[in-house]
Amino acid sequence: MPDIRPMVGSGALVLNATYEPLCVVSVRRAAILVLSAKAVCVADGDGVLHSARNSLPVPSVVRLTRFVRVPYRTHVGLSRRAIFARDGWRCAYCRGPAETIDHVFPRSRGGRHAWENVVAACARCNHTKGDKTPAELGWRLHALPAAPKGTAWRVLGHRAPDPRWADWLDLREPEAA
Ligand SMILES: [Zn+2]
Predict the structure, then answer these.
(1) How far apart are CA 53 and CA 26, in angstroms?
(2) Which residues form the HNH nuclease domain (predicted)?
């Protein structure tokens, strides 16, 4: 096993043989997949990994050489990270940078904690909104909240994507305000 010491906190995107995003693994794990010919590197990250016998560019995206069957997950977990990712890290009301989660129909009034009732919001809008509904304030939602769909969510629900992964994750640019 190679002695590979990557940077702390770095990760590599793993694609299925079909280029479908599967998961994020440590750079060390991705390098081992490449060195054991279980995967090929399709995008390099920064720097070079060294082992006793090998050196290879830090993998940023690797693709498995053999297709793996993955159980199809219809349900995307409602995590804070996933909500921000779905909403493009933008406030649903003013389109500014979002740092809080807002329940569109307030929880204090029976609003559910569900994909259809949560949006990313900036602190200012969230505070101003308080226990009111957007309709009561005359506010409009940028888009109707809904559960996200697609394979990219296996990855997006767990961590912020590396910009180098955009080609494989089909990430949409947040629309201009
Ligand atoms: Zn806002």
Answers:
(1) 20
(2) 78-127
